[in-house]
Amino acid sequence: MFGEAWTGSRIQEQVRMLCDTIGPRWSGTDAEWQTIEHIEKTLQGYGLDRVDVEEFEFTSWTWSKAEARCSVEGREGGFSLDILPFIRCPSFHMEAPVVDVGFGSQREIDAAGSLNGVVALVALAHEPFTTPVPPAYRLRQIAAAGAAAAIVVDPKSGGRREYHSAQDARDPNFTEPPLPCVAATREDAARIRRSPSCRVHLDVRTEAPVVKSANVHAVLEGDRWPAEDLVLGGHHDTVFGTPGGNDNSSGTIAVLETARVLSQLRASCGQRPGRSIHFVTYAAEEQGFHGARQFVDRHYAGDHRPRLAFNLDELSAGAMKGIVLGFPHLRSLVQEQL
Questions:
Q1: C-alpha to C-alpha distance for 140 and 126, rounded to whole angstroms
Q2: Measured between alpha carbons, how far is 193 from 338 in angstroms, rounded to an integer?
Q3: For residue 297, what are the CA distances in angstroms to 12, 100, 227, 243, 269?
Q4: What is the pTM of this model?
Q5: Candidates 3.40.50.10860, 3.30.470.30, 3.20.20.140, 3.40.630.10; correct CATH number of 2-60+210-337?
Q6: Residues linked to residue 123 through DSSP beta bridges, in sequence order
Q7: Would you list the domain boundaries of the chain?
Q8: Is 235 left (phi over 0), alpha (psi -120 to 50) or beta?
Q9: Angle of helix 250-269 versus helix 30-45 axis, rounded to 10
Q10: Where is the protein situated, by its record's location annotation (predicted)?
């Protein structure tokens, strides 16, 4: 089995298809549907017991305009900021003073004074030597203090800013952003901090269309406990403008390669898994885990639950020893369920 994983590897072929040929695949777009069709065809070619494309509709999000310009009292001109709206940011147009709230801790918010109607400048990174608080929850604190919007400083250098979320889709009570947010570069943020009495003009235009997407779901049935499920999944969508080599072509390809090797083991040796294995690539993870939620609602809404579910995401971020070796505290859980 391990020999086939190495000698018969189709990883580079899949990387070329997903990253080079298809490229960015925001859920609900033509590129994502091209991805869905490719994954379906690939899994069908492995001779699995069942391959289904499970369609659903959801409210997506897109943007068409994101402009920001700063002005400083007593200085002519001003300077523009290179910004990206946060995912699910609403349309907004405003001009307001900028107040630096550091990392957005409650202590720093209180020290900043009144934030009513201002644009808060806040670092995405965690405050050193403190208990980490996820950015979305710090942004919620800033909104509760009265800020009208936030400019969030990306921690990467070199003029980089990326898409982020101001909500926590894992929390059913926190599915919408608490205030409009845009991401800015570290370099632009440093310029704002060097400019006392800075005001910013922000103009962001977004839309929230209802679109169709789909998970791809394949099954390799077990021969001893076929009614007991193991789920191996990873999302196939990306954020805007990136081919998603790491996030998450790596996870998608791992699902496909595992399905390939295990199906060939059955074909060549007649060896089936004891329990049924469900291979899934999820849609719309970047927009709030819609695909994963749809999969659970469709297959596990009642009393039936999988024995174990693995979610594969960003597997090429660095050296990994595997779940059991890399995370020894999970060893007993994995062994008990398998």
A1: 15
A2: 54
A3: 34, 43, 18, 29, 35
A4: 0.90
A5: 3.40.630.10
A6: 153
A7: 2-60+210-337, 62-207
A8: beta
A9: 20
A10: Endoplasmic reticulum; Golgi apparatus; Lysosome; Secreted
What are the residues whose beta carbons fall under 8 Å from the beta carbon of 264, sequence distance 6 or more? 4, 8, 46
Residue 2: φ, ψ to 5°: -70, -35
And the tokens for 276? 């049924």
- Bridge-based pairing of strands 275-282 and 225-235 is parallel
d(CA 269, CA 263): 10
Q: Which helix (H) or strand (E) holds 255?
A: helix 250-269
Q: Sheet holding 308-311: strands in order across?
A: 50-59, 210-220, 275-282, 225-235, 308-311
- Give CA–CA dist 124/103, Å, rounded: 7
Please give the C-alpha separations between residue 213 and each of 38, 45, 74, 219, 236, in angstroms, as whole numbers. Answer: 14, 22, 52, 20, 11
CATH topology of domain 62-207: Glucose Oxidase; domain 1 (3.50.30)
CA pair distance 328, 325, nearest whole angstrom: 6
> pLDDT (tens digit, 0 to 9) for every residue of the chain, 338 residues total?
778 888 889 999 999 999 999 999 999 999 999 999 999 999 999 999 999 999 999 999 999 999 999 998 877 778 999 999 999 999 999 999 999 999 999 999 999 999 999 999 999 999 999 999 999 999 999 999 999 999 999 999 899 999 999 999 989 999 999 999 999 999 999 999 998 889 999 999 999 999 999 999 999 999 999 999 999 999 999 999 999 999 999 999 999 999 999 999 998 888 999 999 999 999 999 999 999 999 999 999 988 999 999 999 998 877 665 666 667 788 888 888 87
Tell me whether domains 2-60+210-337 and 62-207 share a fold. no
